[in-house]
């Protein structure tokens, strides 16, 4: 958990920073005026997609290390007494040594394909719910932000989960040596072996986690904008 915790702030900074600046560029509306002069959903959707690409590229190595560390509790080698990786730095060094720099970005394209549409829907859903829960022309209150943020997070993870399953399997490919030839090959092999339900694996847990996390995330974002802008 140490590696994701140390990098989650940077990842959120990239996501919200790119989204805010992209939305400002596309719509020309200052951030603090976006409730009184709302940008179009097309601009919000596009800016969200751009933030997804940026976040995925930034987090690809971090996410790979996290997945490898989380999955080493599964005993792939019954004779192994000690875990293969002693921590995040050791894990990253091992990946670099055994798989090269390219190995640190294993599953990166699947991460881009997961986060680009997901964050586009994420920000569009949040904005639509805020507008629906708020009197026209006014800023949403804390309750509206919490509800909109939580539901936006849940909706985005419902969309993201199938590609998240594929991404995790590609990232573990260097350990299990399944040798998928790419995203589509991983998708077809997983479907053939385990059926369509495999792509919903983890959806319940992701949804339960997403609501409180994203409710607090958006409430913090809105209040920091007021404080800093």
From TrEMBL:
> Iron: present as a keyword of the record?
no
PANTHER family registered for this protein in UniProt: MITOCHONDRIAL BASIC AMINO ACIDS TRANSPORTER-RELATED (PTHR45624), SOLUTE CARRIER FAMILY 25 MEMBER 45 (PTHR45624:SF6)
Signal peptide range equals none
Q: Which InterPro entries match?
A: MCP, MCP_dom_sf, MCP_transmembrane, Mitochondrial_Carrier
Q: Identify the keywords attached in UniProt to this record, alphabetized.
A: Membrane, Mitochondrion, Mitochondrion inner membrane, Repeat, Transmembrane, Transmembrane helix, Transport
| MF term (GO), any | transmembrane transporter activity
Membrane disposition? Multi-pass membrane protein
Q: Membrane-spanning regions, if any?
A: 40-60
Keyword hit for Transmembrane: yes
Q: Name one GO cellular component term.
A: mitochondrion
Q: Where are the Solcar repeats?
A: 39-132, 140-227
Q: Which superkingdom is the protein from? A: Eukaryota
What is the name of this protein?
Solute carrier family 25 member 45
Which locations, inside or outside the cell, does it occupy? Mitochondrion inner membrane
Protein family per UniProt:
Belongs to the mitochondrial carrier (TC 2.A.29) family.
